[in-house]
Amino acid sequence: MQVLKFGGTSVGSVESIKQVLQIIEQHRQQGNSIAVVFSAMGGVTNQLIEIGRMATTGDTDYMELVRRIEDRHFNVVKALIPVKEQGKVFAHVRGIINELEDLLRGVSLIRELTLRTHDLITSFGERLSTTVIAEALKSRGVPAQFLDARTVIKTDAQFGQAEVNYTLTNQLIQDHFAKTTDIQLVTGFIGSTEKNETTTLGRGGSDYTASIIGAALNAILIDIWTDVDGMMTADPRKVPNAFNIPTITYAEAMELSHFGAKVIYPPSLQPAFARNIPIRVLNTFNPEHEGTVVSRTAERRQYTITGISSIDDIALVNVQGSGMIGVAGVSAKLFGILATHKISVILISQASSEHSICFAIDPRGAEQVKQILDTEFATEIAHGHIDSIAIERELSVIATVGEGMRKSSGIAGKLFSVLGKNGVNIVAVAQGSSEINISVVINKNNLSKALNALHNIFFQSEARMLNLFMVGTGLIGKALLNQIHAQTDYLRQEKLLRICVVGVANTKKMLLDVKGLELDEWHERQLTDGVTTSLPAFIEKIKDYNLPNSVFIDCTSDKDIVQHYESLLDANISVVTPNKVANSGPYSEYRRLQRTALNRGVKFLYETNVGAGLPIINTVQGLMTAGDRFLKIEAILSGTLSFIFNTFRPGLSFADVVREAKEKGYTEPDPRDDLSGQDVARKILILAREAGFPLEPDDVTINNLLPKACLDAPTIPAFFEELERNNDYFENLLTQAEARGEKLRFVAAFENNKAVIELRSVGPEHPFYQLTGADNIVSFTTERYKERPLVVKGPGAGAEVTAAGVFADVVSIGSYLA
Ligand SMILES: NC(=O)c1ccc[n+]([C@@H]2O[C@H](COP(=O)([O-])OP(=O)(O)OC[C@H]3O[C@@H](n4cnc5c(N)ncnc54)[C@H](O)[C@@H]3O)[C@@H](O)[C@H]2O)c1
Ligand SMILES: N[C@@H](CCO)C(=O)O
Ligand code: NA
């Protein structure tokens, strides 16, 4: 024997009932012996409750609602039963509706609705749905029989939530099924007292009916047909990547459903659990899907946890006081009081200091609980043994559940670490010694981020997700997006990293999409779908989305954007940037950003601030971490100036060479920054700071390369005009150096707390003489690299190498989070 149960949505419309009939027929064709339990048509039970309420208040509009219920069932008859048989079925349905109307007339006369009558009214939903489905089946020649569960399920008289008398019920069910081989079509949710008064079985009603019948008949399997593909790893409305759980144990299902998984209500399946009858949760609308099997043992799984669930809204009550330490009975009294007032406790946590107990409850009851406890503990509070009772609101509980967590270490560690890295503060924690549920209380506004971050780490180990927000889609930004796009598959497969670009902005437009932008069409979409850029709005959105593993990338040279870094880091959002502005302002600001990132456990990365993609910042940080000391730094830090001095020849136009550098993507957005020495000054300042010296911008001396007129040029075009005008000046510099057999190099040097930048002419013996193209070179003299310095050399400017450096920083955040 196998029991099938179809829920409200499965029998909610003509179309879905057709589907149900087909499923039943398939079972019959396969020769399975089945019993089928039905819920009321979707929505009908709530309508009946409303109808009852209206009748009690004397509102006669309830009649219209009754008419609608009747019509829905008539429509099923019309659609699924041959015309010549319809008349008798209409009469049958009408008869049941008449009975309901008589009852409601009585209610509206006496203006009173007892729980007993309430149960009777709601029983009509299952009676009607099962009646029409039974008739439809019979009209197809299926040997089927309507079974009113009130004749076999016997309960006490606790209306609304009756207790089953199993001894009697089991006997009646067994007797009934022994008498017939027809398929029994059973009304869910209802039973009756020994005096034949109608009762209902409370929450999870029809599942309960299926479970009672299955247990009584020792069924081999119970199928719960619903409208989703079984139980999921998390609520798919909150976690888009949630997926089906193929097998789950009773205990796990119990833990998960306690935390809001609405698919089944496991307590109602208790009779089946007790007899070790497996339960399958299946989708009427996707019958091919394997669904979820709930049974005593689950198959070995790929994942350490089985599911994540949450309760969106809870309040935490904290009972605290020095008088509680070592005093037995406080908790007994506390929970006694809660029990007396029928207050359901969701979670309890007590630290071993015994100084406080906190527990979570439904926030709707919080105020009442506070009043009750304030009164009941008035004496203890007056004597100062207990402080007043504190309530915290706007909280959620998240639980990770799974048998795999039992006796397995590192899961709590992973859980706390991922929440920590995402800036999710943990307000309270509870783990039962069964070890199959770890629950944490967090702020409600972090719920979605926390759920997704946990789901990602526990279930999507095939790919960690990074969510990127990028400002600046110029030379570097564009190159970066292209590189990310080209590398997406590789990162996913080989580095288990999924990169999702959620937002892009330039000076004109910004575009955000939580689901991620398509990188091959981002530019077009940005132009068509984007809105006018507001940087504060962009930043607010990033914080609002509150996505796990968020990274902000600043690919501008803007001075205002850097003002936002601190607040971003503070919100646990990592920052990656080639923009040097933030790190080359006052030392205190540089320091503050470092600190904020450190305190928040997020990353602030800027390898491309110096030498583009060359590993210069990382090298300095590595030496520092290992305890080396810097004595001297000598460097050529401008790709632009390297290129210019390696390209300029007498006879060429200096201005044209500068233009060429700009075209090649070496210069700053404003090339005056390069030629004034400003860009190099920033870089040597940043290097000195990284090397442990708290330099201020004023500590860097720039011995100017340019004639004053060039320096003073008010615009970029005016600057180029001045360069043309001063061509002789540059030719002179060059010929003088060449006459000595030397080359021009714009060198930055740091020693004894001072940085100097100047144009030098170096001979062939000098290590900087050989430099070609737009190369940079940095020579570090340290305690450990004293005899011969450590040298990093290579292309230090250009879109591809710079974007690659930014990209490497981004990817390193991915590894850090993993
Ligand atoms: N070119 C290189 O070799 C190199 C090397 C290392 C670092 N960098 C740095 O990379 C950064 C970007 O350089 P680029 O050449 O790509 O510049 P770019 O001028 O080509 O692009 C700048 C982008 O930033 C946007 N932008 C500027 N201000 C903005 C604001 N307030 N709000 C929104 N968007 C804004 C612009 O619309 C544009 O899309 C600079 O900080 C530069 O110093 C460049
Ligand atoms: N404009 C810079 C880019 C690298 O920061 C240079 O020429 O070196
Ligand atoms: Na670098």
UniProtKB/TrEMBL annotation:
Organism placement in taxonomy: Bacteria, Pseudomonadati, Bacteroidota, Cytophagia, Cytophagales
Top-level taxon of the source organism: Bacteria
InterPro entries per record: AceGlu_kinase-like_sf, ACT-like_dom_sf, ACT_Aspartokinase, ACT_dom, AK-HD, Asp/Glu/Uridylate_kinase, Asp/hSer_DH_NAD-bd, Asp_kinase
Family affiliation: In the N-terminal section; belongs to the aspartokinase family.
Biological or metabolic pathway of the protein: Amino-acid biosynthesis; L-lysine biosynthesis via DAP pathway; (S)-tetrahydrodipicolinate from L-aspartate: step 1/4; Amino-acid biosynthesis; L-threonine biosynthesis; L-threonine from L-aspartate: step 3/5; Amino-acid biosynthesis; L-methionine biosynthesis via de novo pathway; L-homoserine from L-aspartate: step 1/3; Amino-acid biosynthesis; L-methionine biosynthesis via de novo pathway; L-homoserine from L-aspartate: step 3/3
Record function comment: Bifunctional aspartate kinase and homoserine dehydrogenase that catalyzes the first and the third steps toward the synthesis of lysine, methionine and threonine from aspartate.
A GO MF term: aspartate kinase activity
Reported cofactor(s): a metal cation
Native source species: Spirosoma sordidisoli
Subunit structure: Homotetramer.
Residues covered by the ACT domain: 400-468
Single biological process term from Gene Ontology: methionine biosynthetic process
Protein name per its UniProtKB record: Bifunctional aspartate kinase/homoserine dehydrogenase I
Keyword hit for Acetylation: no
Catalytic activity: L-homoserine + NAD(+) = L-aspartate 4-semialdehyde + NADH + H(+); L-aspartate + ATP = 4-phospho-L-aspartate + ADP; L-homoserine + NADP(+) = L-aspartate 4-semialdehyde + NADPH + H(+)
Keywords in alphabetical order: Amino-acid biosynthesis, ATP-binding, Kinase, Lysine biosynthesis, Metal-binding, Methionine biosynthesis, Multifunctional enzyme, NAD, NADP, Nucleotide-binding, Oxidoreductase, Sodium, Threonine biosynthesis, Transferase
EC number: 1.1.1.3, 2.7.2.4
